[in-house]
Write a structure and sequence with these properties.
142 residues, mainly beta, five-stranded antiparallel sheet, globular, YtkA-like_dom, FixH family protein, signal
């Protein structure tokens, strides 16, 4: 006689959902650096982010300025791509940010930024400049 094991599917889904829910309710690591200006992960560039709206809003489309400089603080010509997500939720940004130009200081203007919920966000700036490719990682608490 074979026992019906279909009940295992909803049980597994409930357990997985409970674990995911618990993960979203945990607090971010206590030692996160929330500065918006620091060296890129490989140390090649100094990267500074400036949101167009302060405090950074939840649910509203806005832009950011991204400045890329060398170790002497001189602006660097570079291609950048900005992306991000919520590590505790396992999802990315709800939009696809795009570089739309530069301001009069030579900073990249990244439009199409929107955060759809409060919490811990990570922003990644991929940089391809004269010193090579690198990424700068930033933490935000909204």
């Amino acid at each position: 006689m074979q026992i019906n094991k279909l009940w295992l599917i909803p049980a597994a889904l409930l357990i997985a959902g409970g674990i995911a829910f618990a993960a979203t309710r945990s607090t971010p690591p206590a030692d996160l650096d929330y500065s918006l200006s620091h060296r890129s992960d490989g140390g090649l560039y100094q990267v500074t982010l400036v949101p167009s709206i302060d405090p950074v809003p939840v649910g509203k489309m806005h832009a950011w300025l991204v400045e890329v400089a060398d170790s002497n603080g001189q602006p660097v010509e570079a291609e950048i791509v900005m992306d991000g997500g919520m590590p505790q939720h396992g999802h990315g940004l709800p939009t696809v940010p795009q570089v739309t130009g530069k301001d009069h200081h030579g900073r990249h203007i990244v439009g199409g930024m929107r955060f759809n919920m409060p919490g811990w966000w990570v922003l990644n700036v991929d940089i391809d400049g004269s010193a090579g490719a690198d990424t700068a990682t930033f933490n935000l608490a909204l």
